[in-house]
């Protein structure tokens, strides 16, 4: 079968992506990145950000809480120093962008409207920043305004990464679709709080984002719900640890999948997911992804 997946103007070699914030820019593990459909960069903002104070990670049974706070070099240094090197990767390069005003998203899209960028992932869902992030993603009108502005400032494929924190993602997905998004990613991490045993917040940023296996059942629910609500492709994300998880997300309606926290444990996790998916398709003689994508609802 042809393993390729096309979203917007971008054709990916296969449906597996390394998720933003968990694989940096793909440069440390090119042998893995080169065999994936693509790498989603860590979030890029207009200005450099030092991120939140440590500690930034808290483990718990079933996952982790992170409070990185969008640490990144800023768009100017990213374009000058990082982007030329990522272009040497053989996979697709998706740049995740995060703004603190609606206008910042438009400026970031214009600055990154380059042939070196295959697609933009518009981050309206980061849970551990005080401004923007999930606060934007909870409001369909704001999601629509940001998406429309980005769409008007770039010819790149536009993917909107949605939140499921205190909002129906089906409604924000419809807003993104109406404004011209080529796809949506669902879900980002969920709000979480860890205490230090003395009643004080453990993380330096106080709150964090929950990721890992504990997230999967809710993420699957959201993918199933969003895929039924929109016609544009859905990219599933949330607790993807192995190929079996990826098959579940594709079955629920995702056209592609993102591997996140698993890469922090094993940098080859996303490649293992792709190898497992390919073996499943070979063993079951799948003619194409359409046989698998959305079969949960067809079989109901």
Automatic annotation (TrEMBL):
<dbReference type="InterPro" id="IPR012135">
    <property type="entry name" value="Dihydroorotate_DH_1_2"/>
</dbReference>
<protein>
    <recommendedName>
        <fullName>Dihydroorotate dehydrogenase</fullName>
        <ecNumber>1.3.-.-</ecNumber>
    </recommendedName>
</protein>
<keyword id="KW-0560">Oxidoreductase</keyword>
<feature type="binding site">
    <location>
        <begin position="66"/>
        <end position="70"/>
    </location>
    <ligand>
        <name>substrate</name>
    </ligand>
</feature>
<feature type="binding site">
    <location>
        <begin position="260"/>
        <end position="261"/>
    </location>
    <ligand>
        <name>FMN</name>
    </ligand>
</feature>
<feature type="binding site">
    <location>
        <position position="20"/>
    </location>
    <ligand>
        <name>FMN</name>
    </ligand>
</feature>
<feature type="active site" description="Nucleophile">
    <location>
        <position position="126"/>
    </location>
</feature>
<feature type="binding site">
    <location>
        <position position="161"/>
    </location>
    <ligand>
        <name>FMN</name>
    </ligand>
</feature>
<keyword id="KW-0285">Flavoprotein</keyword>
<feature type="domain" description="Dihydroorotate dehydrogenase catalytic">
    <location>
        <begin position="5"/>
        <end position="277"/>
    </location>
</feature>
<keyword id="KW-0963">Cytoplasm</keyword>
<dbReference type="GO" id="GO:0005737">
    <property type="term" value="C:cytoplasm"/>
</dbReference>
<feature type="binding site">
    <location>
        <position position="187"/>
    </location>
    <ligand>
        <name>FMN</name>
    </ligand>
</feature>
<comment type="similarity">
    <text>Belongs to the dihydroorotate dehydrogenase family. Type 1 subfamily.</text>
</comment>
<dbReference type="Pfam" id="PF01180">
    <property type="entry name" value="DHO_dh"/>
</dbReference>
<dbReference type="GO" id="GO:0044205">
    <property type="term" value="P:'de novo' UMP biosynthetic process"/>
</dbReference>
<keyword id="KW-0665">Pyrimidine biosynthesis</keyword>
<feature type="binding site">
    <location>
        <position position="123"/>
    </location>
    <ligand>
        <name>FMN</name>
    </ligand>
</feature>
<dbReference type="InterPro" id="IPR033888">
    <property type="entry name" value="DHOD_1B"/>
</dbReference>
<feature type="binding site">
    <location>
        <begin position="188"/>
        <end position="189"/>
    </location>
    <ligand>
        <name>substrate</name>
    </ligand>
</feature>
<dbReference type="InterPro" id="IPR050074">
    <property type="entry name" value="DHO_dehydrogenase"/>
</dbReference>
<dbReference type="InterPro" id="IPR001295">
    <property type="entry name" value="Dihydroorotate_DH_CS"/>
</dbReference>
<feature type="binding site">
    <location>
        <position position="212"/>
    </location>
    <ligand>
        <name>FMN</name>
    </ligand>
</feature>
<dbReference type="GO" id="GO:0004152">
    <property type="term" value="F:dihydroorotate dehydrogenase activity"/>
</dbReference>
<dbReference type="InterPro" id="IPR013785">
    <property type="entry name" value="Aldolase_TIM"/>
</dbReference>
<dbReference type="InterPro" id="IPR049622">
    <property type="entry name" value="Dihydroorotate_DH_I"/>
</dbReference>
<feature type="binding site">
    <location>
        <position position="123"/>
    </location>
    <ligand>
        <name>substrate</name>
    </ligand>
</feature>
<comment type="pathway">
    <text>Pyrimidine metabolism; UMP biosynthesis via de novo pathway.</text>
</comment>
<feature type="binding site">
    <location>
        <position position="42"/>
    </location>
    <ligand>
        <name>substrate</name>
    </ligand>
</feature>
<feature type="binding site">
    <location>
        <begin position="238"/>
        <end position="239"/>
    </location>
    <ligand>
        <name>FMN</name>
    </ligand>
</feature>
<comment type="function">
    <text>Catalyzes the conversion of dihydroorotate to orotate.</text>
</comment>
<dbReference type="InterPro" id="IPR005720">
    <property type="entry name" value="Dihydroorotate_DH_cat"/>
</dbReference>
<feature type="binding site">
    <location>
        <position position="96"/>
    </location>
    <ligand>
        <name>FMN</name>
    </ligand>
</feature>
<dbReference type="GO" id="GO:0006207">
    <property type="term" value="P:'de novo' pyrimidine nucleobase biosynthetic process"/>
</dbReference>
<dbReference type="InterPro" id="IPR024920">
    <property type="entry name" value="Dihydroorotate_DH_1"/>
</dbReference>
<feature type="binding site">
    <location>
        <begin position="42"/>
        <end position="43"/>
    </location>
    <ligand>
        <name>FMN</name>
    </ligand>
</feature>
<keyword id="KW-0288">FMN</keyword>
């Amino acid at each position: 079968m042809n393993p390729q997946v096309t979203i917007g103007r971008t054709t990916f070699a296969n449906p597996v992506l390394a998720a933003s914030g968990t694989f940096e820019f793909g440069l440390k593990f090119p042998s893995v990145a080169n065999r994936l459909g693509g790498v989603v960069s860590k979030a890029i903002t207009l200005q450099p950000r030092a991120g939140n104070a440590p500690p930034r990670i808290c483990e718990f049974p079933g996952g982790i809480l992170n409070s990185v706070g969008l640490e990144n070099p800023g768009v100017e240094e990213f374009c000058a120093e990082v982007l030329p090197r990522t272009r040497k990767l053989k996979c697709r390069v998706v740049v995740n962008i995060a703004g603190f005003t609606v206008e910042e998203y438009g400026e970031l899209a214009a600055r990154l409207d380059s042939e070196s960028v295959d697609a933009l992932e518009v981050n309206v869902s980061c849970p551990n920043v005080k401004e923007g992030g999930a606060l934007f993603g909870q409001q369909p009108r704001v999601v629509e305004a940001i998406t429309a502005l980005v769409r008007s400032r770039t010819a790149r494929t536009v993917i909107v990464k949605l939140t499921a924190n205190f909002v129906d993602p089906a409604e924000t997905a419809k807003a993104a679709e109406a404004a011209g998004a080529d796809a949506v990613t669902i879900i980002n991490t969920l709000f979480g709080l860890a205490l230090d045993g003395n009643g004080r917040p453990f993380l330096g940023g106080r709150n964090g984002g929950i990721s890992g296996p504990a997230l999967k059942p809710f993420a699957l629910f959201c993918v199933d719900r969003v895929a039924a609500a929109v016609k544009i492709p859905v990219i599933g994300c949330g607790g993807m640890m192995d190929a079996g998880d990826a098959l579940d997300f594709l079955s629920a309606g995702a056209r592609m999948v993102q591997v996140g926290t698993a890469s922090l444990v094993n940098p080859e996790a996303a490649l293992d997911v792709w190898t497992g998916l390919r073996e499943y398709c070979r063993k079951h003689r799948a003619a194409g992804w359409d046989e698998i994508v959305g079969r949960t609802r067809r079989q109901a």
